[in-house]
Amino acid sequence: MTAPLAPSFDGVTPVLPAPDPVDPAVRLAHVTKRYGSGPVVLDDVSLDIAPGEFVCLLGASGCGKSTLLNLIAGLEPVSAGTLTAPPEGAAVMFQDAALMPWLSARRNVELALRLRGVPRAERRAEALRLLGIVNLADAADKRPHELSGGMRQRVALARALAQDRPVLLMDEPFAALDAITRDLLHEVLENVWRETGRTIVFVTHNVREAARLGERVVLLGSRPGRISREWRVARTRGRRIESPEVSALAAEITVELRKEIRRNAS
Amino acid sequence: MPLENTVPASGSLSDDARSLPSGSLSEDERSETETKRGPLAGGRDGTSHPRLAPAAPGLAQRPHGELEGLDRLQTVEIGSASRTRERLRAVLPPVGLLVLLLAAWQLYIVIAQPRPDKAPSPAQVLGALGDAWQSGRLQESVLTSLERGGIGFVVAIAVGTPLGLLLAEWKLLRRAAGPLISGLQVLPSVAWVPAAIIWFGLSDATAYFVILMGAIPSIVNGLLAGIDQVPPQLRRVGTVLGAGRLQAATAIVLPAALPGYLAGLKQGWAFSWRSLMAAEIITTGGSIGFGLGTMLDQSRELADLPGVLATIILILAIGILIELALFAPIERAVLRRRGLLLGGA
Predict the structure, then answer these.
(1) What's the complex ipTM?
(2) Which pTM value belongs to this model?
(3) What residue numbers bound the domain in which A210 lies?
(4) Measuring CA to CA, which of B66, B158, B209, B299 is 20 to 30 A from A200?
(5) What is the DSSP string of B54-91?
């Protein structure tokens, strides 16, 4: 662990011992990113993400959290430092479901399977199984425009699962959804995480969402983006968006986030 | 609960999962044993490929009912109005307008009584059509023109499509040739007729050449516009899903560009048909066959206005028919599939 660990927010749970024996799924060591000769977007970011961990990257708009995600996804090169990610790459989910509008939900998932090299004969059943995970088996033959925003995002999640990569990167996937849908999708995502053991890196600007979902919440400061603090959540089971411990953590994070934003004003 | 005890595919709840009170913490404790998930645990011990393990029945059971309810609330069932009603609503207005125009025409003839050689009545024009049918000239000319137009159009597709793909992929070529292709689209292809006559004489080659010069730029431009308008997000998805260049082109870019391509094809056909008529009117004689344009020109030479009007109506009708019978259904189907058609019901 390179970044100093802040004490756990409840003050009771001891900070976990360093996870050295396990190789991290993603390791960023002194990663810096700038576009051309523009300003530094990410400055000396070091972060180890353990396999199976659920990490929320939190920050104000424009702090470079999406850039960080793109770096991990391999969509953009790092300017300096080293980034170690699984060789098979990562699955990515965007804010926009970005489903192929001419394909049904099932065919969208099948497309990912096809590009992964799954034989044709197995694709259909596998796609239906994945849609079942996100409770959409009944809507398999609907086209994206016939689905609600939340359903589209679930198809996108099923498609990301179809890639079968150990790391799932999510770039504000629920930001455009209404609150109730978002709550329910949090539960779907949490279940998927528990069942599949995937490493999830979840970018969001929503403090409560981060406190609700994350096993670890990493706060990014802005301009240049660097890690300003992080929190670990010891008990991740049974959390709801309205749980008191989620509210408490969210309040604590909000204080830090505001400090971080004020720092930019001066 | 061991992982083997799972239901495949459908994701339905197993009986023991159903019997559990939904939302209670007991589920969570129960599942604690089935998936070992310390915060920093390796995550994938036990089965060799846990990520491919079928969805366990415990999965997503808590939000199940609520999700279903929300899904039902948030999706609108598109009511399927009866097909015949839909057809009637599409067909009645244009037919009504046609009847009205004919009535106005007839009324003008009755009231103003113009010279019949300058303003024939609808009945005279219909008579001219009947005569052409009786003599077989109508069938011959329609067949000749349609055959030429069809073959020319197919060749134009065969040439224009790869050309458009090449231009879309090869940026330098695009920058170099783009303005030229756009310019060719603006140039009336009739302008090529004199040159074509000098090159190819009064033969079918002249007609085909003019058709190609009219249709290919439209098809190329339509395809380019379609490819340009592919949402960048879809391309990114292709990259993320691991699509190679060729796979991205065939599985994502081309299908996404289909509406633009279709629009280009439609315009390409319109340009082919126009160019062909112009070519046929100008080039008569030689080895060139008897097409609709030829018939039009012959009627003019005979000062046969009913014949001229009858041919014009025929040319127009064929254009409309092909649009309605060929392009409109394809376009509607494509747009409807993508939810781009308003008033699908």
Answers:
(1) 0.75
(2) 0.69
(3) 1-10+23-90+165-266
(4) B66
(5) PPPTTTT-TTHHHHHHHHHHH--------HHHHHHHHH
